[in-house]
Amino acid sequence: MNCSKTNVSFLLLCLITLIVTYGTLLTVVVKIQFIYWKVAESHNTTHRVTTDCGNSTSSEIDQLVAKEVSKWTLEFDMTMFLPASIAGIIVTSWGDRVGRKIAMTIPVVGMVLSNAFLATSIYLNWPLKSLFLYNLLAGLGGYYMTLLMQGYAYISDITPSVDRGIRMAILDTCLGIGGGVAGLSSGYWIDSQGYFAPVMTCTIMVAASLFIIPLLPDSHKLRRQLAEERESNVNEDQSSTSSNPSYGTCDDVDQKNEKNPKKKGYNLLDLFRSVWNVYSSEFSHCDKCHVTGDDCNTLSKTSSDEMCPHGGGKYPGRVWRMWCYLISYDFAMFVNVGSSVFLTIFLLSQPLCFNPVLIGVQSGMKFAVGALTPFLVIIYQRVLSFSNNFIIMIGFLGWFGYALLMSFANETFLVFIATAMLTFGYSHTSYIKAQMANMVSEYEHGASFALLSSSEILTFLAATVTFLTLYSSTISIYHGFAWLFAAIVLIIPMILMTIVWIADKRRRNQLLDNERKPILS
Asked: What digits encode the pLDDT tens for the residues 92-122?
């Protein structure tokens, strides 16, 4: 019964993600091309002229427009990502206390209001400065990344650790499908109906997701039901096989804390404190077993796992692993976002000179190859028996090859060959999040993703500043320099993941040699 509920919950979550992704990413593509058109219009030219590669005068205008578009995009993104970085960490951690559905609603409402304002701005042909309010409205709600982190936390709540990577990869595939359809339709839609119709449609679609979110079952209740089933199974196994004390149901700790139950508050300081604990301590709190850092001070100092069935207790080496995963994820998003913010300008400019249809095809192909990710990770895990860390490395290598080849792309076919390399490039972020969720208790999933959400938003800002500045500064020297820089940056997370891979392999070998010991004395 609970298994069917979790499957239905996951399908509803995928549907919400698909709808919001399509609406959000199509709006982003339309917004960038709208900015390009407005800037070109201000120079008494048209979008068609700025992409005419056969005219030297057009080439000068093209570079001027590209630089100005980069400047506007940078200022707009700063207006969005600065407030979103603060809202993201608060809303995502808050989901541990009030539930995922309420926390999901906040960024969606922000996106609906911002998209409605963008549609109004386009319809009334307001000046570009009006888009500052659009970005501010989206940022105050935490924006798209906060919704995604709530989705990953929801999956972590209702999914056993062994299946989290695959389910997160499937959810990421929904992002790919939504983004692929958005990319394929954007060029034709803009050519046929202009900018207003796509944005207005996206606003209605994202608003429709607000009626689906309440249909999601409460992940906290599902988690408690699954935990009770696991505990009953553990009790049966213990009564039939051993009389040794165990941490299985945490009875000792539960009785110890019955007289002094923990008070659950929702003040802001507690939210930040719970996030900091995840990234500064090897001990996970468990609300069910009332395990805290103070309780864990009495635990034996061994290298074996010392965790309750809900993930509370000691995880040796968790702190530095969490930071390695966090930094690697941020570098991955730095390159992903950084390459996306100037990709449209890169393709519109010389020597490629793509038209809106080709831009849509490339964008659609880029996201659509991600649809193969669930099939690939199933082969990786269940056929080839690859470890999670090795799957992460494959993803980084796919993105490294994509960025390196794009740096030399001066023909259309090279762009599409490079994009095809991303077939292997969409597994790493899913498994990084799964690894992070596996190192915390079931009551800290939101806290573990809260800092990830905030750092991802700040990474969006840093990537936007870095790549738009770098691209506009080097476009006249070397058209693909920003791509070469992206490939070099990816070497850093690959080194970090190699270190974690080696450490985890040694830890697994050590655990095989040690018998499991009771955690509480």
From this structure: 888 878 888 888 999 999 999 999 999 999 8
User: Residue 334 in contact with residue 489, Cβ under 8 Å?
Assistant: yes
* Residue 445 identity (one-letter amino acid): H
Domain count for the chain: 1
CATH code of the domain covering residue 415: 1.20.1250.20
- Helical spans, DSSP H, in 194-250: 196-208, 219-241
Q: Report how far residue 484's alpha carbon sits from residue 45's, in angstroms, rounded to the nearest whole number.
A: 32
How do residues 374-433 score in pLDDT, each as one tens digit? 888 888 888 888 888 889 999 999 999 999 999 988 888 888 899 888 888 888 888 898
CB-based contact 107:142 (threshold 8 Å) = yes
DSSP type of residue 261: P
DSSP per residue, 422-448: GGGSSSHHHHHHHHHHHTS-TTSHHHH
Q: What pLDDT score was predicted for residue 88?
A: 84
Q: State the Cα–Cα distance between residues 258 and 279, nearest whole angstrom.
A: 28
Residue range of the domain that includes 474: 2-219+317-510
317-359, pLDDT tens digit by residue? 788 999 999 999 999 999 988 888 788 778 877 777 887 778 8
